[in-house]
Amino acid sequence: MAEIRLTKVEQGQTKIRNVPIAVTPEGFWCCPSPNVFQKSLKTPNPLNKPKAPLPTTQTPAHKKQTSVTEKRPASAAPKSGAVSDEKRGVSSDTPSVTTSVPAERTPRSKTESVPRKVSIEFGEPGTSDLRVILLGKQGFTVKLNVHKNILVANSSFFANKISVQQPVFPCIEIDDCEDVEICVETIGLMYCKEMKQRLIKQSVSRVLRIIKVAEQLGFQSCMQSCLEYLEAVPWVGEEEEEKVVSSVLRLQSEGIGVTPVLKRVSSDISKPHKDTFSHILELVLKSNEERGRREMKSVVLKLLRENNCLPSSSGSVDSYNEIIYGSCRSCLDSILILFKQAAEPVFSSNSTDCREPVVKQMVLEADNLSWMLEILIDRQAADEFAVMWASQQELASLHTKLPIVSRHHVSCITAKLFVGIGKGELLPSKDTRNLLLQTWLQPLINDYSWLQHGSRSFDRKVVEEGIGRTILTLPLEEQQSILLSWLGSFLKSGDNCPNLQRAFEVWWRRTFVRPYAETGSTRPLDHVTTPKVTEH
């Protein structure tokens, strides 16, 4: 590793800044530091800060130098720089870079803070037989003294350019070079025997820039080394992954092996995705570890919600829904068996060790059903679940025979269905809605006190609004039947019963105040003043 020593003299003090430049055994730079480019564009002194004229450091005549020339006004701040032979540490074939700037005499004005054009030269003119000039868009002009045989052997772009011009000392000029820094580094990599080692400590974003330039230059071995790097290095974040995949896909037509990189994001396995999804669902539903199961349910639910936003064929959506409904039926069958077992008279006399596994399994199956219902609601496919749940008359009849601590998790499923119907997230038929209320509203009322105080996720106002809205979707006669039955329970239990007062007021107004079915007739309570209630 050679170093270029840039000597900066300021008011009698000498500051040394070492800029590392890798040199190959062939005597050519390989990966010049980005500092060479970035530091050259920075203004040497703060604005409006005067400096006294300083002597210019002289460079011995026997040292070979290339220069960094800067076009700027006569009043610009001068500087001096020299290259130290001791710091080169390489043979005479090693390239050298020297910054040569006149001393600063007058303070810089604000109008002179515009970007300056910078010229940098690499390589030894005495040993090279080709000059490449890169004209960058940021004001850079980079001159590279290189060797035709190296460039022809590695780059189809340079091979074509060189074949059409055969002067004694040819010069190739590349206009509007988008990425001068990376282009210099990529040409330098043509001199490396172990390119992969040069890439090890590079960032993924920089390697993507290199592979883009290598593609433009037709540098096949560099592209292959970059692909090997990308196949092995971790990609951090979705944005970086997308950039890698898009860059690699662009190279498919180049005839180089991109498959190892793409295998990270695509699979050749012929096993359908639905089989994998079914396996994941089964693992989550059968887990007995509460924390792991809870966390993975949240993860799977989040990922499925992301999938819902992506376009997909109706066939794949239907197949996933079928898998979920198959698991729902299995859970329902398990809950029914467990309820029958717990409803036996002898069950309560069993020891705690015998009863606890049954109760724990009931809670698990009810939680699984509630989770899958949430998935189906997100996928707008929960109508069939409402049909299944409304038809569970046997399960509802066993509900009252179990202790409330064991059964209240089932009522959470009923509450979630009512909330979904009230929000319009599922649209079961009128008969299904009526049957759902007839079958499960009273069990929910029986468990309401426990749900309010024993379930952290239970939102009383949301549930009551969902129940009321569900009732109000039915024909008026059925609304009356259900609400009068609720009124009897509410007058007995008070706060331990759902408060459906808003739904009751809407029903009252529909029945007594402004019946839509009768026109031109006067009802007994037409002139009774009632509070105005917004229908929900």
From TrEMBL:
<dbReference type="InterPro" id="IPR038920">
    <property type="entry name" value="At3g05675-like"/>
</dbReference>
<feature type="compositionally biased region" description="Low complexity">
    <location>
        <begin position="91"/>
        <end position="102"/>
    </location>
</feature>
<feature type="region of interest" description="Disordered">
    <location>
        <begin position="40"/>
        <end position="116"/>
    </location>
</feature>
<dbReference type="InterPro" id="IPR058039">
    <property type="entry name" value="At3g05675-like_ankyrin"/>
</dbReference>
<keyword id="KW-0833">Ubl conjugation pathway</keyword>
<comment type="pathway">
    <text>Protein modification; protein ubiquitination.</text>
</comment>
<feature type="compositionally biased region" description="Basic and acidic residues">
    <location>
        <begin position="105"/>
        <end position="116"/>
    </location>
</feature>
<dbReference type="InterPro" id="IPR011333">
    <property type="entry name" value="SKP1/BTB/POZ_sf"/>
</dbReference>
<dbReference type="Pfam" id="PF25553">
    <property type="entry name" value="BTB-POZ_ANK-like"/>
</dbReference>
<comment type="function">
    <text>May act as a substrate-specific adapter of an E3 ubiquitin-protein ligase complex (CUL3-RBX1-BTB) which mediates the ubiquitination and subsequent proteasomal degradation of target proteins.</text>
</comment>
<protein>
    <submittedName>
        <fullName>BTB/POZ domain-containing protein At3g50780</fullName>
    </submittedName>
</protein>
<feature type="compositionally biased region" description="Low complexity">
    <location>
        <begin position="41"/>
        <end position="57"/>
    </location>
</feature>
<feature type="domain" description="At3g05675-like ankyrin-like">
    <location>
        <begin position="276"/>
        <end position="514"/>
    </location>
</feature>
